[in-house]
Amino acid sequence: MSRTTIVRLLAFVASLSVLGLVAVSAQTSAKKSTPVAPAKSAAAEKTARAIFAGGCFWCMEGPFDKLSGVLSTTSGYIAGSKKDPTYQEVSAGWTGHTEAVEIVYDPARISYEKLLDVFWHNIDPTVKNAQFCDQGSQYRSGIFYTDPAQKAAAETSRAVIDRSKTFKGEIVTEITAATVFYPAEDYHQDYYVKNPIRYNYYRTGCGRDARLKQLWGDKAGVGSK
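Above: the chain sequence. Below: its structure as tokens.
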């Protein structure tokens, strides 16, 4: 069952319940402003960002939010041709964008290599243009590097995964230079925190955790210790 179907079903259930959950039809809040290049400051110089695509962005914030040294995660869209895309446009599959998360982190406290390790263990790298129950290029997995050092680290990590994997299948996750990252609508941000019942229903129904366990065993969702 796809995320769109699950969300529609949950919206119907929510309208009949007394739990006070906000219906999807009410979740049409304004989109975050299009990002602009921030002025450099001493604080900004001490942070870095990583951009990963792993299917549904709802499911990709939590694993990084848990990490010491991660300062923020933002769900959004990247790698397409449409400027300022909406969720409806991206989910229709014609913009070229994929759902992704932008991670702002302190490189003095956590390395990009650690973020890569957690990323790999939260995706199915053997599937092209899909992740779990969600189908289409808008759900493709990818690493979007921001400089040559990130590119080299990403390619090294992919080679390590390819050599050490215990599952069959070619690694098809793309490694591509980052383009403009567009933050998604406000109601998508921290969705797993704001709407835990809906989120867990979707995640379980999509078979994400079962597939991750099949692929990665004890490292599923967390990476190497």
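The chain is about 35% helix and 15% strand.
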